[in-house]
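Hi Y.,

Following your request, here is the sequence exactly as I used it, all 142 residues.
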Amino acid sequence: MQGFNKIIRGYDPREVNNFIDEVIKETERRNSEKSALEKKIITLAEELKHYKALESTLNRSILVAQEAGDQIKGSAREESKFIVEDAKRNANRIVNEALVRAEKTEYETALLKKNIRVFKLRLRGIIESQLELVGDIDQVEI
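Below is the corresponding structure, written out as tokens. Let me know if you'd prefer a different format.
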């Protein structure tokens, strides 16, 4: 605290008035600073409110995106199951068709072998009968 010089009738009025002026200036400066800080607090509070609203919106967006991602994953899993099941059915069908064709080919091969044996037997019979005729011609006297 500031001390004042004493004069005949108390303190020096100029010093007291100067001190009061300084106190007034300091009070006005602090009031001005307080007003500026209050305005800054209001501005920052509004910004905070804005950012909290933005944060809330972003959080909802993230949740929606996660749910959409989960749905896409689920759909992809389901679709992959259907694709795998369809592929298995197609594979089974192809294998069954191949087995049927193999059995048919095996049957046709067996039939062809049988026909070849029959053909050989008949051809042998024809050749033998022809040889007998040739032998009979040799016995005929001319």
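The helical segments are 13-139.

Thanks again,
Q.
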